[in-house]
Amino acid sequence: MWGELIQEIRVAQTGVQILFGFLLTVVFTPRYTDLQHVDQVIYIVTVVLGACATGALIGPVSLHRLVSGRRVKPQAVRWASRLTLVGLLLLLATMTASLLLILRVATHDAFVPYLVAGVFTWYVLCWFVLPLWTRRRHTTR
Fold first, then answer.
1. How far is residue 82 from each of residues 6, 23, 78, measured CA to CA in Å?
2. Within 10 Å of residue 66's Cβ, how many Cβ atoms?
């Protein structure tokens, strides 16, 4: 289970690290000071969410390194799995907030919250509803 978990984390880590890296650069662009206050707040919240997601998704690697050889693999897998789930939830929040910010700045359209809600729903369906449905439907007792 550890090997599968690490492979899953690699995919999520790459995405969150790229997104977080881009988010960090926004504040240094000339356009940042032109943002409305609410957009600057959304940006700050998004960066903090991205930092937390990065920490949660890198946490299992540190956990593995620090407990390796201590004969606590079942507990390490359980904690790493929990950290990964928290990281995915934080990544969901980061991506949703990023999309909200980008679409608010790009369009200033009243339709933006509905579009973001639709994408959020899509993420939830793909990342959580379908896997949980599959687990419930196809897990043998």
1. 13, 25, 6
2. 9
